[in-house]
């Protein structure tokens, strides 16, 4: 397994739209394992392939308190979202040390292929619902700061450029 470099906002590669994965093979399983290792190492609860400069529809998530319930989602889709909205504080491994509130659907139903290539569905609320929607935005080239005002976003951009001139996180 390997730790992968995480792109830092405003790297333009974070705005790439990911393509669907044709087959869940050993390459995808290895990438998912490397992404999980990278996510745990960075103390994250999710990671999208976009953030490690791979533009394919793959995300990994673990919102469990024991950090022992990894989820692999290949070609994820939100098949239902609640009308009810909920506002939660978000962070992003590609925007280190920045947290702000974002409003999203309170509950979602998600369909994806697992690490074994088989389809599965689950319902999410709370942190899991926030995380799924945040990661799926990454696959569409959207970073959570794009929900904030232009003023806040510009301030964050300048901070990130100053702290991470190489546009990847140092380990
Ligand atoms: O996509 C990412 O960069 C991962 C991101 C996922 C996420 C967490 C919380 C809300 C929205 C999206 C993170 O893991 S941020 C760091 C983190 O561990 C965390 C932040 C807030 C609450 C819980 C965890
Ligand atoms: Zn993120």
Q: Which features does this protein show?
A:
171 residues, five-stranded antiparallel β-sheet, globular, binds ligand K1U, binds zinc ion
Give structural notes.
- There is one protein chain.
- The mean pLDDT is 97.
- The longest helix has 16 residues, at 26-41.
- The strands form 2 sheets. This protein has a 5-stranded antiparallel sheet. A two-stranded antiparallel sheet has the order 4-5.
- A hairpin with a 5-residue loop joins strand 6 and strand 7 (119-125).
- The protein has 171 residues and is an alpha+beta fold.
- The two termini are 16 Å apart.
- It is 26% helix and 26% strand.
- It contains 3 helices and 7 strands; from the N terminus they run H-E-E-E-E-E-E-E-H-H.
- It has helices at 26-41, 126-139, 150-163, and strands at 46-48, 58-61, 71-81, 85-90, 100-105, 107-113, 119-125.
- The protein binds ligand K1U and zinc ion.
- The site of ligand K1U has 16 residues, from strand 1 and helix 2.
